[in-house]
Amino acid sequence: MQLKRLTAFHSVARLKSFSEAVSQTQLSQPTLSRLIKQLEDDLGVILIDRYHRPLQLTEAGRFFYEKIDIILKELDSTISLTQKIAHPPDTLNIGFVPSVLYGLLPTVISRLKQRLPNLEVHLKDISSFKQIGALKAGEIDVGFGRFAHNDEHIYQLLLRHERYVAALPNTHELAGSHDIHLSQLQNSRVILYHQTHLPVPQLASASTTEAQNTDPSLISEPLLHLFAKRSALPHHTTSVSDIQLALGLVAAGEGITLVPDSLKSVRSEQISYRTLIHEDATSPIYICSLTTPTHPAFTTLLEVIYAIYEERGITYRRVI
């Protein structure tokens, strides 16, 4: 079965239009039609319902499209990785979540460039969840995120745990306090900002809504999970799309939130950052790359990170 026939069908099926597929593939419509007809003859099934407008796939066509979509993406990824092995790149594309950029990442990159002066580094703001797809697609070479992933194609290391601090408006009654217990924040409006959530187990069946709302193991929102572990779920919450917006609302006196310690310099003239009594209220920092091949600069990048941690007395988990 020819790859050209598969890609012709994939383009038409994905775009649901012969004319758009013509524009994308640079093939003529008669050529596309012929390739798809040859594919149907190879399979002995009809993939496209040619009697409906707009274009529709048959049931067999939908099934076939879903399967070859996975195969073709894997093939593209394999080709890209093969090319990288043969021609090691001189550019390192790093994906990161914003909270990491406020920490040591700028120092890490600066030190890495000193070690590898010919290396270009490009940064891309991308959520922990989306970093996995971006690594497989070759859009990034390394990702810095806050959540663990379980994927056989991804090599992920826990670098360290960073403690959460409470971000409070300067007018908040606890703005002058230290070692705050989360139960003291229950009556404050908590601003939630995580787009990636924790995995939760599938409920057996008869679990009540109340149990789902109070059992920490069933709460996927990371900040609410921390509160639930102390039986201190807040009475009021607001959700926003990112951590910068959350801190903006805190500065405006619209609520409080919890952020990694490295962000306590953000809007510090309007926000009081206070330590929590809970030593295990932490946000992990992970670094991830493809299992194979890793970028040639990956080992040097890790060495730089560990050196900076050593200099600053930061507790971390060393792998190399």
Shape: globular
The total number of structural domains is 2
The top level CATH class name of the largest domain = Alpha Beta
CATH architecture of the largest domain: 3-Layer(aba) Sandwich
Mean pLDDT across all residues, rounded? 89
What is the CATH T-level topology of the largest domain?
Answer: D-Maltodextrin-Binding Protein, domain 2
What sequence of helices (H) and strands (E) makes up the elements? HHHEEHEHHEHEEEHHEHEEEH
Structural class: alpha/beta
Sheet-strand content, in percent, reads 15-25%
Could you name the ranges where pLDDT drops below 50 across 5 or more consecutive residues?
A: 204-211
Q: Any idea what the radius of gyration is?
A: 25 Å
Percent in helix = 25-40%
Number of strands: 11
Q: Distance N terminus to C terminus?
A: 45 Å
Q: How would you characterize the largest beta sheet? A: 7 strands, mixed
Quickly count the helices. 11
Pfam families: HTH_1, LysR_substrate
Protein name: LysR family transcriptional regulator
InterPro entries: LysR_HTH_N, LysR_subst-bd, WH-like_DNA-bd_sf, WH_DNA-bd_sf
Domain HTH lysR-type: 1-58
